[in-house]
Amino acid sequence: MTDHLVATVQKHVPNIPLKIISQGAEALVFETTIHPYSTTPSLHNNKQFIIKFRPPKPYRHPKIDASITKSRTIGEVKFIYKLEKLGIAAPSVISADFPNGIIWMEHLGSSLPDGNISSLKNWLWYLEKQGDVTKCVDERVKSVCNLVGELIGRLHLNDMVHGDLTSSNILLTDDYKVPALIDFGLSSFSNLPEDKAVDLYVLERAILSTHSVFADTYNAWLLEGYETIHHSVEFKKDGKVKYKDTIRRLEDVRLRGRKRSLI
Ligand code: AMP
Q: Could you tell me which residue ranges the Protein kinase domain spans (predicted)?
């Protein structure tokens, strides 16, 4: 199955070496060493790039499928462009082929000492596996969690929601110190506190399920950063109100989640 999909994407990017790094229901993600038009790109990493490919879905009518693929790819690229304009850390788009569902983008993050990509999830896991509890909750971890909270806050303050906010979709750059967001396949523009609260809840649950021992501490630090950016001078116009509305809604979303688990 994957071979067939790799052959399909290879047809659209001939002679480009592709290494598959992830296969999800919606898209395949490849690493490549080739930039489509520059030998000296000014990116964080100018040796590796990412190609995200939305393959045709055989269970959809071909015409409908082509239209969905095109509009989702355009939507994701637009979202990333807007993030770049706002200075919200995310990979830059290098090039895109909308009809074929391809986005060529900047490669962010690096490898952890254990070889895994430096996502927030992998990094926290890596620290936990070292067996030194103090390192799991030290100032460095607090700073990263605060910055993640600020990053999400900045996103929400601009009425943008991620839609799939897990700790795998947050990559750490600059020596695992600076977070950046990835995967905007389900992202949207919304000013609704409900949508923002669901984003926060999804991340809260992801942290709880993957880092249960320190989850409460990590989540408190995330919310601390989220609050800080809402109360900053930059957002003094409506930051405080937006913060109150979203956090109030988060309480409701948590309650709904608890009721659902009981049922
Ligand atoms: P996605 O389908 O966009 O969630 O990507 C799946 C996986 O590919 C992520 O969990 C990352 O490990 C990796 N990935 C996606 N985009 C990038 C990127 N811009 N830089 C580095 N790794 C990425």
A: 15-263
